[in-house]
Specification:
The chain is an all-alpha fold. The protein is 73% helix and 0% strand. It is globular and about 55 Å long. The two termini are 29 Å apart.
Length: 326
Amino acid sequence: MQVTNSKSRNIYFDILKGIAIILVAYGHVLQTFNSNWESSIIGKTIYAFHMPLFMLISGYFFYPSVQKTDYDHFIKKRFTHLYLPSLMWGLISCFLIGGSKLFSSQYIDFKYFINLTLTGAWYLTLLFILQIIGAMIERFYAQYKYIAWSVIYLIIYIAPQLWMMRELKYLTPFFIIAIALRKYDWSKCSYKIGILFLLIFIVTMKVYTFEHSMYRMSDNIFTIDYHLSAFIRFIAGLSGSICVIWLASYLQKIKNITILIAKIGLITLPIYVLHQKFLIINKILHINTNNLIILTCFTAIDILLSVFIYKFLNKNKTLSLLLFGE
């Protein structure tokens, strides 16, 4: 694919983002409607790499954005685009959960609600933190950025499981790798690399279980299991992501599919913050299924509803800013 000019757009990364958000939505649909989702091969596969893939994409676009503006403006822009909507969705979650607890006279843990507010939409908060760190490195240590990133990640790796530390341990390496690999044209990933990492991913998934995921991460750095799990988690995330990066280079040649997925990829943030809200309905329906066709249909409906609500809310400039950072 040719390098784009100001009047055209390389939609490869829109396709890649579209695939990533579809995987995220499918994973949450599976989690909602299949009580045995952790033992599902599809569930295990998706959760092994879908967020690393998102972080690789985010890292790829970091330095072009930080280098074309001054430090203060970049921080303000990142806060508006990432952390402001994250905070707002955190507050909305607090309002809904808190209201439910008050209505049912349940105990309210204020510490939990403070954490929920500050975390908000956790991936947006995490990305905001990494981009602030990256901006500081670019401003003060640009010549030694990889050394600086290495030192920072070492500190993160051995740090106790404090606020957002679990997520930072898991996804920071992918952000750094994407920065290092930006000089390559990802849309022309060779079949040799694709096949190699596909084989690595298949072998890794033979030993990968949900116990290796971020959600089961140990906090004892003085055990072999801590480091072994971190290694398996990293290899699964990287190899699975590169497989999708490779497959997307072929997928972009299929015009109709390309256009649809690319359109979804243009609005990943709104879909990310909205799609789980509709899944709450299963608290009433109590549907439990492992039928792939049904789960795929639920995912499509979930994404369509997210797009519809986004288009509706986006008409109001204030809501667009607060909820979607636009």
